[in-house]
Design a protein that fits this description.
This is (2Fe-2S) ferredoxin domain-containing protein. It comes from Enterovirga aerilata. With 251 residues, the chain is an alpha/beta fold. The radius of gyration is 22 Å and the shape is elongated. The chain folds into 2 domains: 132 residues, 3-Layer(aba) Sandwich (Rossmann fold), CATH 3.40.50.1400; 108 residues, Glutaredoxin, CATH 3.40.30. The chain is 31% helix and 22% strand. The relative contact order is 0.10.
């Protein structure tokens, strides 16, 4: 069990989901239920800070000697959990184990996340130093062979215009074509924050071609996949802007 005054709980979640989770507020509600003096902090895995290493560094500076990290990502991601143990072990090795860090059992599902957090804190936590230190698999140092990168805007205005289901539609359509998954025609696709011409959204950019597609629809995405990504024929009527190596050319 945690020892008062020298212990901490760190709630670890995704900033992209925090409007629903509210980790800072949850930390405030959790603190009174813990042994007196137990510090409760939070960290984010994506988009913004504070990062988990920064939070652990701050706790070490405060004199905390033991910290339990509770991953608040529901449903749990097994690949992330495997990576996290090694990354925390690496942090411990780099810092000379200033803080004994343990991982609480994963929260598999939760309609009541605060109750689920209290539940996992009552179960044994894993010592991260038992996992070999690692910030990632060896293969993560290699850039996959690919021909294009796609940035799909999921900023606030594009999201309001239906960007998320359109992004999922794009991913599903791409999965139907093996050449887009590996080799020289592979298209690496990622969500992005706001790309700024919000009135032209939903938006996506195809690089290195430099084509910005706006006003996206499911049918329009189908054509971009079949004509542009598979056949190298940009869909002219969907292009709202072009960027070249020499500068920008309006759409």
């Amino acid at each position: 069990m945690l020892q008062p005054a020298a212990s901490a709980i760190v709630l670890y979640g995704r900033a992209s989901f925090d409007k629903a989770q509210g980790l800072p507020a949850m930390a405030g509600r959790l603190a009174p239920t813990l042994p007196p003096g137990t510090r409760v902090a939070w960290a984010f895995a994506d988009l913004t800070g504070p990062s988990l290493p920064d939070v652990l560094d701050a706790l070490a500076a405060e004199g905390v000697r033991e910290a339990i990290v509770v991953t608040c990502m529901v449903p749990a991601d097994p690949t992330h959990a495997t990576w996290l143990a090694g990354a925390l072990s690496q942090w411990s090795a780099d810092r000379g184990a200033q803080v004994a860090v343990r991982l609480a059992p994963a929260i598999e599902a939760a309609l009541d996340l605060p109750a689920a957090i209290r539940d996992v804190l009552g179960r044994p936590a894993a010592e991260v130093t038992l996992t070999p230190p690692s910030l990632g698999k060896p293969g993560w140092s290699k850039i996959p062979e690919h021909g294009r990168q796609i940035f799909f805007c999921v900023g606030a205005r594009c999201l309001h215009r239906g960007a998320e289901p359109l992004y999922q539609h794009l991913r599903n359509r791409m999965k139907q074509h093996r050449p887009l998954a590996a080799g020289p025609r592979r298209a690496m696709c990622a969500r992005s924050s706001c790309l700024y011409p919000c009135n032209l959204g939903p938006l996506m950019i195809v690089y290195p071609d430099g084509h910005w597609y706006g006003g996206l629809t499911r049918d329009g995405i189908d054509r971009i996949v079949s004509d542009h990504l598979l056949s190298d024929r940009p869909v002219a009527e969907g292009i709202v802007h072009r960027t070249t190596a020499d500068g920008a050319v309006g759409g």
